[in-house]
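User: Need the bound-state model for glutamic acid:
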Amino acid sequence: MVRVRFAPSPTGYLHLGGARTALFSWLWARSQGGRFVLRIEDTDRARHDEASAEAILESLRWLGLDWDEGPEVGGDFGPYFQSERQAIYRQFAEQLVARGVAYRCYATAEELKAARDAHTASGSKAPFKYPGIWRDRTDWPEHQPYAIRLKVDERGQTGWNDLVKGRIDIPNQTQQDFILLRSDGLPLYNFGCVVDDLSMKIDIVTRGDDHVINTPPQLLIYEALGHEPPRFAHVPMILSQSGEKLSKRHAAVSVLEYRDAGYLPEAVLNYLARLGWSHGDQEIFSKEELIRLFAWENVGTSAARYDAKKFLHVQATHLRRQSPQRLAELVRAAIRSDEAVDARWLADNVTLDKAIATATSRATTLEEVANTIRYALLPRPHYDSSAVAKFLSEAACALLVEFAALLESLPTWELGALETATQDWLDARNLSMKALAQPARVALTGQSKNAGLFEILDVLGLERSCDRLRSAAQALRSGAEEAPL
Ligand code: GLU
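Assistant: Bound-state model below.
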């Protein structure tokens, strides 16, 4: 069975690059009926905190990248945490010492500094390497902490056939007797990673290509352990449009920021997949299609460039593909925390569905949908003061009051009839639709830009529409022009 993993370090939030690495692994697992393992690499205590690990889990949950195993926590699977697996790393490291392929190193920080200083003083241009002080010694002092280092043969080269990048070979001369386990018992990244990938039976290691340099030492560890290594897939970076490393200046770098800005998880997955993977020139994919079509040979070998406009387009397309039920659910979730919203209207399916339907053709994000329809869920709209100043003149207000009377005089509340009656009424006054629609839109929604007048009337219904038309006009008449309506 295929087993893949995502192994983030909890150093902040889940950024787009990390999410894409997780996605590729997850897609492979799902397409092969395999297992997706999540492992939090939290052994570097100084750089990690619990909130970061939680943010990563929250991001993966939101994206729907579910993991399949881990220690049980409250009836659910937690991910694996490296900090809870120290005994395992110790066991593997001591095994290597016992087999003579690794050794105890009792060198103190002072000794190492002296060796480094001597190297600098010698004028050598070669980078400093640990000089093997304890490589062949067995006069181990008692009760003293020690690190465990791998005995590295610096001849030859170490290489692998990368699933994304093809053949990579790196001379062993670039290596040294590196530390596997520190004297405080914590594994260094390469060792913890290999021990875990091995004991979790991972067969494809997917990670960012900034980790290419870590693969040769990891392969040396597999060799020392006498195990076949897994396969590796190093995924190229995501760059900005101008080719720089993607940063806050170019994009919302954290996945959760996209959630908070009203993006849909399926849109984020779709866009991330397309950043570095392709299937002909198709741009829009459902999650199911991604699972069906994903293949390593179609992951690009060079860095992808983040394009905010394309991302928005993908988002807008997914927004329009949602069923009315799901959209209502998402909008409800997005709006629920807004205290000004009247729970009665938020619970009213007819109003909510109608309002959402008026917004989705223009909006790109859930946040825009929520902002467009909020007027229908509030007891009174929030009035935009510049829209009020621009459109609610004395004459316009008088017209709104008359329009309310017209609405009440109609025998039925039916959209077609409403539109015809309004047009006749305007014709008789020699007025354009615009002369009515703009002030009416402001009175009904508080905004100058929103849906069409008749759509808005339909959302609000007769009573609320007339009430808003009259009270907006009334507020203005009573000199409340400056005060909030
Ligand atoms: N923990 C590493 C990181 O977050 C990834 C290691 C790996 O995937 O092998 O960069």
